Amino acid sequence: MTNKEKISERLATLCVHQGVNKDDTFNAVITPIYATSTFAFEAPGKTKGHDYSRTSNPTRSALEECLAALEGGAAASATSTGMSATATVMHLLPAGAHVIAGHDIYGGTYRLFSSILPQRGISFSFVDMGDPENVRDAIRPETKAVWIETPSNPLLNLVDIKAVCNIASENGLISMVDNTFMSPYFQRPFELGADLVIHSTTKYLNGHSDVVGGAIISKSAETGAKVAALTNALGTCCAPFDAWLVLRGVKTLPCRMKAHNENAMSLALFLDGRDEVEKVYYPGLESHPDHELAKKQMTGFGGMLSFDIKGGSDAAFKFIGELTLYAFAESLGGVESLIEHPDSMSHASMDLAARRAAGIKEGNIRVSVGIEDAADLVADMERAFAAL
Ligand SMILES: Cc1ncc(COP(=O)(O)O)c(C=O)c1O
């Protein structure tokens, strides 16, 4: 029923066709939502491939097949949220394991790593991964994995995935890459040496801000089987309806990513050099310290940018309050533009010292640039600056 074989090497074709679980009963062109908890056995030990929806479900399997093909991995497990994907992969590690992560990762991931998992015997070092040698220096005898998030959230710092994965493999560590910000359209971590790719499918993969979901893609079938056993044992899988929404969203991933990228570039150029703005963080700008690395390891610069407004949080809130096209909301990766204040919102789960150590200032404003007309997005900001 499913296309187990990869049907193309080309991403746009894969997005539309891979994992489309055609319906044999009515020839539906779109994968149906199999809203069922359980599946009847045909005989003892004999099923049509599924027995219970926590273990597997045809709609979810279709999405998993699609995501594995998009990232170029051997297997994928679709989970209920990005955080459940992260929590699940941490169960691959034994008690007593030590993990090295970037110091400027997503606030929710930082909270899991700094205050929840240490209570379960897994410890973390948070390092500036801008210099891969900091990873090597943090390795201890009990280190088992490296967690890479690039570009980082919200300051868009880059990690050299290939360099860090090389250090990981030389030292027998599992390399895990959160590829949420770029999506497989712009960044392909397996080609740079990663072992596992993690997504919040809530963001670009779904792209319509109408679902929360996650995914774990494994480079090897062996790790994929371990991850599938974990999602089944922990119950972190996603529901069939949520899988269907993501599967639908993925079909337009290339068109959306191109539009996000173009609009973010226009906004970054508009913000860069404005009197009210202290600094713009966007890897597509030539002034970005990692611009050369961005050109090397990504095929686009993405739809996320942030900037420091002069005047701290008061100015930030006033500016945001003047906007009409940008929703004042957390999250990212949807077709509509969103704007938020990391210091009090997305990164409030990091303590103040950790936020400042990561370089997040009071006046930092993060934008998830949508696919509206770029001129309208610029004009709305121009008006908000004028009102300050
Ligand atoms: C980079 C990144 N990874 C993971 C997550 C967590 O995903 P979710 O909110 O789907 O649990 C987020 C959420 O914002 C994120 O930005």
What portion of the residues fall into strands of 2 or more residues?
5-15%
Count of β-strands: 12
Specify the oligomeric state: single chain
Mean pLDDT, nearest integer? 96
* CATH topology description of the largest domain: Aspartate Aminotransferase, domain 2
Largest sheet: 7 strands, mixed
CATH architecture of the largest domain: 3-Layer(aba) Sandwich
Fold topology:
Layout: H1 11-17, H2 58-71, E1 75-79, H3 82-90, E2 98-102, H4 107-116, E3 123-127, H5 133-138, E4 143-149, H6 161-170, E5 174-178, H7 183-186, E6 196-200, E7 214-218, H8 221-234, H9 240-250, H10 253-271, E8 277-281, H11 291-297, E9 304-309, H12 312-322, E10 327-328, E11 338-340, H13 352-357, E12 364-368, H14 374-386
Parallel strand pairs: 2-3, 2-4, 4-5, 5-6, 10-11
Antiparallel strand pairs: 1-7, 6-7, 8-9, 9-12, 11-12
Helix pairs in contact: 2-9, 12-14
The protein binds pyridoxal-5'-phosphate (PLP).
Please characterize this protein's 3D structure.
By secondary structure, the protein is of the alpha/beta class. The protein has 2 domains: 11-250, 3-Layer(aba) Sandwich (Aspartate Aminotransferase, domain 2); 253-386, Aspartate Aminotransferase, domain 1 (Alpha-Beta Complex). The protein contains 14 helices and 12 strands. It has helices at residues 11-17, 58-71, 82-90, 107-116, 133-138, 161-170, 183-186, 221-234, 240-250, 253-271, 291-297, 312-322, 352-357, 374-386, and strands spanning 75-79, 98-102, 123-127, 143-149, 174-178, 196-200, 214-218, 277-281, 304-309, 327-328, 338-340, 364-368. It has a 7-stranded mixed β-sheet with strand order 1-7-6-5-4-2-3, with helices on both faces. A 5-stranded mixed β-sheet has the order 8-9-12-11-10. The N and C termini lie far apart (58 Å). The mean pLDDT is 96.
